[in-house]
User: Fold this.
Amino acid sequence: MDNPTHEWEVDVHQVLGASTTQLFMNLAGALHFDEGDEIILSKMEHETNVKPWLFMAERLKLTVKWWESSKEDGLKLTPENLKPLLSSKVKFVACTHVSNILGTIHDVKAIANTVHSAGALFCVDGVSYAPHRRVDVKEFGVDFYAFSFYKVGLRHKTPTNKQPC
Assistant:
């Protein structure tokens, strides 16, 4: 396959852990990119979806780009306000599905298509989305999606879904 990262035919893989933060820290420790590669993080995030990737960037000597929205964008993260940040050097993008500050819901399916067209992986923090809406990771087309079970009234464990390579 020319691009095995984004071509899958089998079911989503799920991993359970203590918390979304812990699973993202584990993932950040497992991913490897080349020195000088770039990652994109949003400024609308809870620390859960920033700290692990900053540690990864420091460990691997990656460049961090910050993705912002504006009033003109409806304070939403969109493919349009992401595109100016994308390049062949971008290998990973992370964002929240719903801003826990503003309540804006981001179209992660459209964003996933944009991220994948640039050849990067896409990770979504679904903690603020999962308690209120149906989660269909395959439909969203994301590479990684996590939320905490306790947010939906279950035990304090967290699933992470990863599309198979």
